[in-house]
Structure formats: structure tokens, C-alpha cells
Design brief:
Largest sheet: none
Number of helices: 5
Number of strands: 0
Structural class: mainly alpha
Distance between the termini: 20 Å
Helix content: over 70%
Strand content: under 5%
């Protein structure tokens, strides 16, 4: 099982590359509102992933030392997502709301992609 810190580094790197591609798309294509929505959603998605990472570290420390922890920050992550949607709704000339929602799912897509890659590489190593 990979260390959560190493996994977060991979996720962070991939999301930064994705954001760089989205900024290039915003700069060089006529679809400004779509790419700004994707940038907004992906940025909030990255912030939510970072918050989950930090809360998971605190949770594992609490379990390790026998302390209690009551939440892993689900409400705050929902609030960030709702804030992104509200921003997109408030400024429809700048942000596409559907693209913002798709961007909010970026970190989930990255996690699934990494899981799929790890599954395929582990399976190919077992066959050898």
C-alpha cells in the first residue's frame, strides 16, 4: 500500500499539469467561459483534495495516539464546492456552470486514474 504522502504528491502533480493545460486552453481557444469554469472547478477540487489529505493525516494521528476526532471536514469541502457553483452562477459571463461542475470532479478522476494505473501495473507484475 503506497504512503498517503506519496499518493498526494502524484495527485498534486497531475492536477497542476491539468491546470496548466486548462490555462493554455483558456489562452489560446475561443472557449473562455468553458475553460474558466474548468479552472475554477479544478482549483476548488484540488483544495478539497488537499483538505482531505490534511484531515486524513490528523485522523491517522488521532487513531495512533488513541484520541478522538469527530470529523474529516466533509461539510467544509461541500461548502467550497457550493461556493464554486455560486461564483459560476453569479458570473455566467465568465464561468460556465457545467464546466465548473465537471472541474469539481477532477480530483476524483485523478484518484480513479491513479488507482486504475496501479491496478494494471500490479497485475502485469504478478503475471511475470
Amino acid at each position: 500500500m503506497p504512503d498517503i504522502g506519496n499518493l498526494f504528491k502524484k495527485y498534486k502533480q497531475f492536477l497542476f499539469y491539468l491546470l496548466a493545460l486548462l490555462v493554455l486552453g483558456w489562452g489560446f481557444t475561443p472557449y473562455k467561459t468553458i475553460f474558466l469554469g474548468l479552472i475554477l472547478g479544478t482549483t476548488v477540487s484540488f483544495i478539497n483534495l488537499w483538505l482531505l489529505y490534511k484531515k486524513t493525516i490528523k485522523f491517522s494521528e488521532a487513531v495512533k495516539y488513541g484520541k478522538k476526532i469527530y470529523s474529516i471536514g466533509t461539510l467544509s469541502r461541500f461548502a467550497y464546492a457550493a461556493l464554486a457553483i455560486l461564483i459560476a452562477m453569479k458570473f455566467p459571463n465568465y464561468f460556465n456552470i457545467i464546466a465548473t461542475v465537471i472541474g469539481l470532479l477532477a480530483s476524483v478522476g485523478v484518484v480513479f486514474a491513479e488507482f486504475f494505473i496501479m491496478f494494471i501495473t500490479k497485475r502485469s507484475q504478478e503475471e511475470r
